[in-house]
Design brief:
single chain; mainly alpha; 6 helices; about 90% helix; about 0% strand
């Protein structure tokens, strides 16, 4: 049973992290070659479609991580959690993973959708003034970098377990 949950944990992690990285580093740069109107329509559709799936994958990673550590693993008491290296790393991973997921849901997605649905930035870009839109897209990239940092910390923690 543990092996099945571990495979599911890894698979969901690949979907969550890989999906976000692919959108940010693969799709987003390619879309920048489209017209502003096409960019906006495509990115809005992509975000609305992919966000629930990537959120579900992230939640699945958290649930399977809890199962692997506490139900099917060695974390059986508060004492073990606080006083062992495994318990400390597992708790850190749980906290970092939860923060990363909540950041993506509450900040990354919300801020991205605010920019995509704000007519001002896109109308200015269509008129030839792309600076306001570029600043907002750069701000989103900076905000999303916190999610990427969370993924890197999670990978490092998982390598220690």
């Amino acid at each position: 049973m543990r092996e099945i949950v571990l495979i599911l944990h890894i698979f969901l992690g690949i979907i969550w992290v890989g999906g976000i990285l692919f959108i940010g580093w693969g799709v987003f740069p390619a879309v920048m070659k489209m017209s502003y109107q096409s960019q906006r329509q495509f990115l809005t559709s992509l975000m609305r479609w992919s966000h629930p799936l990537l959120t579900a994958a992230g939640m699945g990673v958290g649930i399977t991580g809890i199962l692997l550590g506490a139900i099917l693993g060695p974390v059986k008491s508060w004492d073990f959690l606080w006083n062992t290296a495994y318990g400390n790393i597992w708790l850190a991973a749980l906290l970092v993973g939860g923060f990363t997921l909540l950041w993506g849901i509450g900040i990354g997605y919300r801020e991205t959708m605010l920019v995509l649905t704000d007519d001002y930035f896109w109308q200015e870009a269509e008129k030839g003034n792309g600076k306001p839109l570029f600043r907002q897209l750069f701000r989103i990239a900076v905000l999303e970098s916190f999610e990427i940092a969370g993924f890197l910390v999670l990978i490092i923690l998982m390598m220690k377990i």
